Amino acid sequence: MKNIFCVLLISMVQPILAQTKLEKAITNLEDNYEHEKVYLLTDKLQYAAGDKMWFKSFVFDGYNRSELSTTLFVELYNADKKLIDWKTVLLTNGEGSGDFQLKEDLPEQVYFVRAYTPYMTGFNEDYQIIKTIPVYNPNSTESLVVSKSSDWSAKAFPEGGTFINGMPTKFAVRLSSDTSLPETWTGKIIDTQSPNVSLATFKSFDKNVASFTITPASGKKYQAIIQDNAGKSKTIDLPSVSDNGLHLEINSSKEGIKYALKGVNLKQKLQDYKIVGTINNHLAYKAQIKQSTNEVSSLIPTKISNGANGVLQLAIFDEQDNLVAKRLCFIKPNDLKIEKAEIIGQSIKQTPRSFNSIDLSPESYFKNYTVLVSEDDGSNKPEEENILSGLWLTGDFTTRIDSPAQYFSKNANSEALDALLISENWKRFDWNSVLSGNVPAHNTNSQKFLSYRVKPIKDNALMINSTVILVLRLGKNQPTVTPVKTDQNGYIYLNNINNDEPLEVSVFANADKSKESNADNIFVTIEPLVNPVQFNGNFPGTKYKLVKNGDKKTLPATISKAINTQKNNKKIENSEVEIEQVKLVGKKKDPKQELDKQLSSGMFSSINATIFDFVNENQYVAGFTNIFDWLQGKAAGLTFQKDSSGNNVPYIRNQPAKIYLDEVPTDASMISSLPVNNIAMVKIIKGAGLVGEAVAIYTMRGNMQSKSNEKPALQKNNSSMIKGYDKPSEFLIEMIDDNAKIEKDTRETLYWNPNLFDSDYVPPRIKFFNNDSAKQYKVLIISFDEDDHLLYDQQIFK
After folding, report:
1. For the chain, how far is it from start to end, CA to CA, in angstroms?
2. Could you read off the pLDDT of 633-671 as tens digits, one per residue?
3. Residue 791 burial class via C-beta count within 10 angstroms: exposed 0-12, middle 13-18, buried 19 and up
4. Beta strands at 129-136 and 47-48: parallel, antiparallel or unpaired
């Protein structure tokens, strides 16, 4: 919906031809005010400490998936604005995914997920998404409860922003609160000189908004008296009545947007007034009134948006290009352009732990899907937010809207949406600022992917304008060798890097063609050029509050199920370990056992341990400078989280693991500097023996040598490692039908796939196993075709 343009042609309105101050402002707007917004989908609305939080991000440039950014930062904070965890997400066609592993010792409270692109940091921080996530912990001394009382405020907004003597004016009344809003509320309008006479009454459409119409008289002062369902009452003033100005009325329908202008006591009437419509900071409509008249009306056709939905801002300027009225309205509110999934087959059962499948058409224009399947409790509780409200509403406004998804549901009230937009203001730009020629202090040339600045130093001196050998090795791949020249500052730049595996960067001096390159006395540092930024704002208020526990702590039913699911996962992990141990029974001692016997003392002996032998087995460690980087994903139940210094810290079954180096307690920072080629054995001990949950690392002894047939990656100062993007975890489709250890399967999220796609006309298949209680399933499917048409389908399968 970019560069949309339409010229109004009726008897009294002619197209603008000259390059005016307003025209220059429109050019400034389109060239410098492109914006992005983020919608973040999580697999659940609330979590238990120890859960994994899956998320899918959609980044939009207006109403299209963004091509501006390829990087998204997603950060997890506690209520004190302490950064708990963060992810660097690769965006492909504006989409990316990831996950957070919540620690089991997280205190029970409300947490916040912040998501933004580097491009967005040049604009108002208020437009970065902040998602509220309640996290429960049965061991916390405090409990989250929903606050029953709410303190709210109200404002009244006249349509177009003007309140003129003798002109019937539509008002929107908007309630706001940092916690929660009353369920229902009513009000009346009075003249302060006759407070007992009601001039108009209104009833809330929903928690957010109501509307009424009143014809004011000059010299009168009007007030609105509002009362909620709990009996709380507040009185607010309406704006002062003006004796002159421009009155604006707008009605939106399937045919288009009809507007009517009426001038009151204007010197030149409406002659040379301009009407400008913008969608997503781009010109969509413009016209100028050439004749002398006090009234003009016309219909703006829906083709200004190519028939798509969205918010139009209509602004009216006088003959001096002064802004005199403005209004937001929604294009085709009763005709949402949303596609549904084409399902060609399904096998749905209610039997506990049964296999279920849903097949999508391989001949659809939609090729990549985001799919979430959850147990549905049958409550028919409406969504509070979804991708529709994020795309068309909340992503563009900073004020809090209660349950914004309701405005795009099957039973949506278009009158309520219209009143809501009367009460809103398009704050992504200010017309007066744009007219003045102001430009955001922002570099619109956002970098593609990640970029780095490499600084090699030889013999404590910068290598300025020097030819060096740059060696890059991605994961286990073969290295690439390239001669490069440092710039006048001694830097080498690595641009547009989109790796999700460790990238080793080495620099060698290149003395001359007859000699080999060498790394002697070279020290290399790498500085990332695409960085997250500090959050300076305040988190939004929530409807929750923390209270001290009573005699018995009560948890929501879904949280109790989540905690039971965590216990089941541990049982499955332990079962896998036991199976491996059984396989070893009766076998002769192998070299790995002999190495374990040689290096381990009795205190570190355990039948519940996973051993990695670097002496007798090729572990393919070349390219890794930190053993914890190599260990990721190699042992069941072993995960890693970063500490405040950026070091990977091991967790076993979501609990911090003790770290030992040659059976001496140490920390993650010490291990990060240990050369990987000096390691003989790593032992992962899970809750058995005398040391508990632990990672024990043993170094080479005597004549031991690494079994790796790769050239050892010597730990030298001329090398450094780039982590790159965070790779999403894999959501496992669990089959636990024959697992007798699982007494009650209580999984809420049954299937999560942020990138389900078809291949060679094979139907994309949604496949999952039931838990022990689900009788029906909530299936959410989201997709975009090549033209960014939206597929949004949420169904209940029984």
Report:
1. 39
2. 788 888 888 877 778 899 888 788 999 988 888 888 888
3. buried
4. parallel
